[in-house]
């Protein structure tokens, strides 16, 4: 059996937690696995697990909506960080040209 890296192990633990929460609500295990795959990171998966524990959504649509909201927030954060990095690089270039 292949040994998991630390990151893979962390993802597996998060996925297992999420699948357990999904099953406690009466939904199939496959639904939880699909949600974990879409969320992609242990932090996002833990956030979803917390939502499930606290809200206990009655409809699968509510779970899917929360998953999409989490994914949207992560994408917005990534775009913000990319824009900040590009802006910093642009400013560095401008300042280096100015100082020459």
Task: Characterise this structure.
The chain is mostly helical. It has one domain. Helices cover 83% and strands 0% of the residues. The protein is built from 4 helices and no strands. The radius of gyration is 19 Å and the shape is elongated. It starts with 5 loop residues before the first helix and ends with a helix. The model has no long low-confidence stretch (mean pLDDT 94).
Would you identify the regions where 5 or more consecutive residues have pLDDT less than 50? none
* Number of E-state strands: 0
Rounded mean pLDDT is 94
In which range does the helix fraction lie?
over 70%
| Class computed from helices, strands and strand pairing | mainly alpha
Overview features:
100 residues, mainly alpha, 4 helices, 83% helix
Short overview:
The protein has 100 residues and is an all-alpha fold. Helices cover 83% and strands 0% of the residues.
Topology:
Blueprint lengths: L5 H19 L4 H11 L2 H14 L4 H39 L2
